[in-house]
Specification:
This protein is mainly α and 92 residues long. Helices cover 72% and strands 0% of the residues. It has six helices and no strands. Helix 1 crosses helix 6 and helix 4 packs antiparallel against helix 6. The protein is globular, with a radius of gyration of 13 Å. The protein starts with a helix and ends with a helix.
Length: 92
């Protein structure tokens, strides 16, 4: 799960399965492997909303995209880093 503090700091919202279906179709059609999905994180590295959407897609469609939970953990760590950067910048 995404860390509660990360959710709070970044203002992340829960997303329903219906809301992320189109993104699932896009990911499923554009990325052939888990490595390709992981690479997409670098393209969206500063877009916490897009990363949040990706996490929910990986969560809802884990059987097809992320059965071992490695991709979700990767996205969670990246979101945690974004939250930490934001907290640091707010304290300066």
């Amino acid at each position: 799960m995404i860390n509660r503090n990360t959710v709070k700091v970044l203002g992340l919202k829960p997303i329903t399965r219906t809301m992320c279906y189109d993104f699932y179709v896009k990911i499923n059609s554009e990325f052939d492997t888990p490595e390709a999905i992981k690479e997409s994180v670098s393209w969206w590295q500063d877009d916490c909303e897009k990363l949040n959407n990706l996490w929910w897609v990986l969560n809802y469609y884990s059987d097809n995209l992320d059965p071992d939970r490695n991709l979700r953990a990767f996205v969670e760590r990246h979101l945690d880093c974004l939250a930490q950067k934001k907290e640091t910048s707010l304290q300066e």
